[in-house]
């Protein structure tokens, strides 16, 4: 361990810094607080140690080779584990401070999650929160790469340590002028002739929408694709189509949410960790979310 720390850690830091700063030697060396010549020597030394070319020189610019990219992919998680272990050791004497990189789904960007995070911050003002919103596949990838410490994911992240914390009801969002807006519920097969607005194909809710419709015998006519759920509701309000969406934390004017019965639609919600090595701050936020998020338990 001593030899690795002494010999390889500075060299690997140079490589990861170069990647993190857009392959710019100038910016990466400034970030590390070393000269560009020192950066070059470290990277050259790493190439010699590994007997693998890591850089392609293009005039004054450099570009990482495929071998360097593979090395970085392999390093991200273990380096994040080391960083997390050091953070935990440094914060053992002060459980009320630290940094948490926390992710949550686009569908939970208003309402409960922001309110719970605000309450957590008021109680723990010295904990620094770095927040990211993304769709489930991206959040899970970030957890696996060590780029997030904790995340709410839909569906639960089977690839990482996680707990099931609730479920999310899916309803039909329609314009208040739509026929379904006058009903207290609709069945999914009544939407066979409707135009749908949905997320792109790599979103879990899009795949679920197709699967749910197929279960009652039709393929949804998806005429508009968009990533932002708030924009989907705006387009629904303007009569461009209907959408299967989670209940909104705040109602959009002109949009009515109609339950689907008897085939009740829901998605499980998970809370996932990047590692079994957790800082006191991460443990504190985990407990706070589990205790305070008003998500209905799965049935």
Key words describing this protein structure:
299 residues; elongated; alpha/beta; 11 strands; seven-stranded mixed β-sheet
What's the SSE blueprint?
Elements: H1 2-20, H2 25-32, H3 36-50, E1 55-58, E2 61-64, H4 66-91, E3 98-105, H5 112-123, E4 127-134, H6 136-145, E5 150-153, E6 162-175, E7 195-198, H7 204-215, E8 221-225, H8 229-237, E9 243-246, E10 255-258, E11 265-273, H9 280-292
Parallel strand pairs: 3-4, 3-5, 7-8
Antiparallel strand pairs: 1-2, 5-11, 6-9, 6-10, 6-11
Helix pairs in contact: 1-2, 1-3, 2-3
Can you walk through the features of this model?
The chain has 9 helices and 11 strands. It is an alpha/beta fold. The strands form 3 sheets. Strands 3, 4, 5, 6, 9, 10 and 11 form a 7-stranded mixed β-sheet that branches. The protein has a two-stranded antiparallel ribbon with strand order 1-2. Strand 1 (55-58) and strand 2 form a beta hairpin. The longest helix has 26 residues, at 66-91. The protein is elongated and about 70 Å long.
Report a brief summary of the structure.
With 299 residues, the protein is of the alpha/beta class. It has 9 helices and 11 strands. The strands form 3 sheets. Strands 3, 4, 5, 6, 9, 10 and 11 form a 7-stranded mixed beta sheet that branches.
Low-confidence stretches: none
Number of helices: 9
Radius of gyration from the alpha-carbon trace, in angstroms? 24 Å
> Based on CA inertia axes, which overall geometry fits?
elongated
Helix content class: 40-55%
Number of strands: 11
End-to-end separation in angstroms reads 49 Å
For the residues shown, what is the average pLDDT?
Answer: 86
Secondary structural class? alpha/beta
- Run of helices and strands: HHHEEHEHEHEEEHEHEEEH
């Amino acid at each position: 361990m001593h030899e690795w720390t002494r010999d390889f850690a500075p060299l690997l830091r140079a490589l990861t810094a170069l990647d993190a700063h857009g392959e710019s030697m100038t910016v990466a060396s400034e970030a590390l607080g070393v000269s560009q010549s020192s950066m070059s020597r470290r990277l050259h030394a790493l190439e010699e140690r590994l007997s693998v070319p890591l850089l392609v020189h293009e005039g004054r610019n450099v570009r990482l080779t495929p071998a360097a990219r593979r090395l970085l992919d392999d390093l991200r998680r273990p380096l994040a584990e080391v960083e997390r272990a050091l953070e935990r050791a440094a914060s053992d004497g002060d459980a009320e401070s630290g940094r948490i990189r926390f992710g949550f789904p686009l569908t939970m960007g208003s309402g409960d999650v922001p309110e719970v995070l605000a309450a957590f911050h008021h109680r723990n003002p010295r904990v620094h929160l770095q927040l990211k919103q993304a769709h489930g596949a991206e959040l899970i990838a970030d957890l696996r790469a060590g780029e997030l410490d904790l995340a709410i994911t839909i569906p639960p992240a089977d690839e990482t340590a996680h707990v099931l914390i609730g479920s999310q009801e899916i309803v039909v969002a329609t314009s208040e002028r739509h026929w379904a807006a006058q009903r207290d519920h609709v069945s999914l097969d009544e939407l066979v002739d409707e135009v749908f607005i949905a997320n792109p194909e790599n979103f879990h809710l899009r795949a679920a929408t197709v699967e749910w419709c197929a279960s009652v015998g039709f393929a949804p006519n998806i005429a508009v694709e968009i990533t932002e759920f708030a924009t989907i509701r705006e387009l629904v309000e303007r009569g461009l189509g209907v959408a299967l969406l989670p209940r909104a934390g705040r109602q959009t004017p002109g949009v009515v949410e109609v339950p689907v019965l008897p085939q009740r639609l829901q998605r499980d919600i998970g809370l996932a960790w990047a590692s079994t090595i957790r800082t006191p701050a991460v443990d504190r936020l985990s407990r706070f979310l589990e205790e305070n998020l008003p998500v209905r338990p799965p049935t």
